Amino acid sequence: MKNNEPSKFDAIIVGGGIAGLTAASYLCRYGHNTLLLEKSKNVGGLVGSFEKDGFIFDFGARAFENSGIILPMLKQLGIDMEFLGNPVTIGIGDEFVEISSQESLHDYGNMLKRLFPQNGSDIDRIMQEIDKTMSYMDVMYGIDNPLFSDLNNDTQYLLHTLLPWLLKYRKNLKQIKKLNEPVDEYLMKFTDNRQLVDMITQHFFRKTPTFFALSYFGLYMEYFYPKGGTGVLPRALSSYIETHGGKVLVDSAVTKIDLDHKSVITGDGKEFSYEELIWACDQKTLYNVLETNDQRLRKKISENRELLNGCHGSDSVLTVFLALDMDKEYFRKRCGAHLFYTPNTNGLSSFVNPIQAHPNPNTPKEMIMQWIIDYFKHTTYEISCPALRDSSLAPQGNTGLIVSSLIDYDIAKVAASQGWYSEFKEQCERAILDTLDSSVFPGIKTKVLFSSCSTPLSIERITGNFEGAITGWAFTNTFLPCETNLDKISKAVFTPFRNLYQAGQWTFGPSGIPTCILTGKLAADDVHKKLNKRH
To answer: Which of 106, 291, 304, 473 is the most buried (most CB within 10 A)?
Structure first.
């Protein structure tokens, strides 16, 4: 090869998140010469862990739900990982219920009745809706996804498991499509108590579809946690790629894709050519780096770029990582390993929120500072204690705690544009500690060894995700530039351009880790077929 010739690959994957890692793993499994490019220093995207002073913290996902996808994928690839239990608890004020079985859902309903005694019949009706939605999704996830099974020689499985499941799947899919209404609007049909609805829904993204939100109570029951932290999964997939002939390059942001010559250029000037390419990261960036001399394609790029400019990313999160001089058993008694906690029953709709709905660059600092205090008194927190699953993740006698809440990207952006972003983070951290200290964890403020705060701007900077989004496109967009029909998910990986596929959270909505894996596998399979046909 001449020095000025680009390195050649059968397939290039841009984006080292879970979707890109999945796609690259399968292409290596199929025997194709594969390159994965990741802009950050580490692969994993929104799935990973970091270490400081003996504490292991998870960023992004706090645990995994199988959904008939994650475990079959690992089994098919031959990746052996040890998983631990991850019980989920829901807490409101001083009331706590662990969601571990169908029966525990009745305990959850009874907890709501104790908190809202005047709405007992409403709660019964809502719990029936949750049961019904969970039953639909139980069928969806009732078997290992066939895409991750080698079925060629298993006639018994095809006849006695897969075909009966497909019949149930098609029937339930019709029911699920009827539940696409935003969950808060749907539940208001069963009660006029907005605060009750807040308690059930405010840890979901705005306008989350009903089928996705209500079925999540069932997913809580199957949460699991990898021994060593969530970062074990991307490291295992990256290792698989490299041991099966693939190449992984980090610190390699893609700045140009030449569709005419099928080449990719990175920020440091390296050029790579491809037969097929899979884009597994931010979709807006894709249309900013595409180049071609074909007038028809240039018009398509321009049209799509314009459409995407009118769309927003999904809700983001603010996270505080706390290293505490407290034994983990304190948290086992108070909340367990994984808690969704709301400090009181007032709910976010109970206080006027002029900033989150309409933030602007001129919003006074004092107004935002006060909003932070009010918001963190009313929001719902996701609280994770890694050492309660794996005691090696914190020094003996200490505990690492991860505390997150949904928050608007624009709030952090305004603080940064006005020049007081550090104060913004300090105020958020202080407000969160004050709230937890006065509610679920008395005395926690005096036990902090060190802490760190991550905002939507941190997510955007580290992962490249537009607006710090954590599940792709927002449900609040009037136009969603991704596929949303479950029965058409196999089409979600196609783009308007030959030899260019897409995968990941910007490709299908609603999107989580299982969807990223599924679209990564779908894209890899289509690329595999094309490469085999060509070669």
So the answer is: 473
